Task: inverse folding
């Protein structure tokens, strides 16, 4: 083999090794479905809105997390449910979650919490996952207690369009 062929083969081998060993960085966000598809939702003022804190791209046996959900003052957390385990803290002040049993995180959304939010006023609501006060970034933990940095994502809600009540004469006028 000449030097050029050997160098090219080394570069290709190094590229292959690096591309297979690079792990995706997990992300944590608030979603409006448990499949972690919609991070933009609508709400009806003063009525509970179900949403989910999910982790994506956690290519590991997932067993814990630490983060904080930043919400505006016109949003109230009316309820929070976690998977079996030990949550320490309050979700909008900072929470550390340790799960009883690991959850496989390959190619699926891992639900960390289900929330009931109530919006008391306003039109567009912006929310964001940020680092817990004890860490520099949001954190996920695998089943070996290794901590991994995660990316906190933003979500938003807008007020749903209220339905107008129609009278029979309004309905009849549509067909004239």
Result:
């Amino acid at each position: 083999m000449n030097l050029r062929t050997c160098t090219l083969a080394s570069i290709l081998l190094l590229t292959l090794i690096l591309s297979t060993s690079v792990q995706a960085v997990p992300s944590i966000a608030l979603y409006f479905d448990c499949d972690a598809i919609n991070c933009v939702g609508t709400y009806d003022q003063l009525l509970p809105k179900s949403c989910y804190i999910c982790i994506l791209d956690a290519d590991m046996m997932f067993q814990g997390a630490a983060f904080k959900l930043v919400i505006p003052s016109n949003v109230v957390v009316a309820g929070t449910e976690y998977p079996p385990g030990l949550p320490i803290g309050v979700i909008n002040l900072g929470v550390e979650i340790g799960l009883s049993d690991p959850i496989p995180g390959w190619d699926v959304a891992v639900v960390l919490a289900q929330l009931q939010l109530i919006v008391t006023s306003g039109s567009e609501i912006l929310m964001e996952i940020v680092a817990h006060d004890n860490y520099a970034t949001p954190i996920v933990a695998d089943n070996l207690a290794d901590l991994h940095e995660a990316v906190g994502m933003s979500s938003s809600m807008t007020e749903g369009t209220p339905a107008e009540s129609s009278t029979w004469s309004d309905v009849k006028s549509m067909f004239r």
Summary: The chain has two helices and 13 strands. Residues 24-154 form a domain with the Immunoglobulin-like fold (CATH 2.60.40.680). Helices lie at 3-21, 168-173. The longest strand covers residues 94-104.
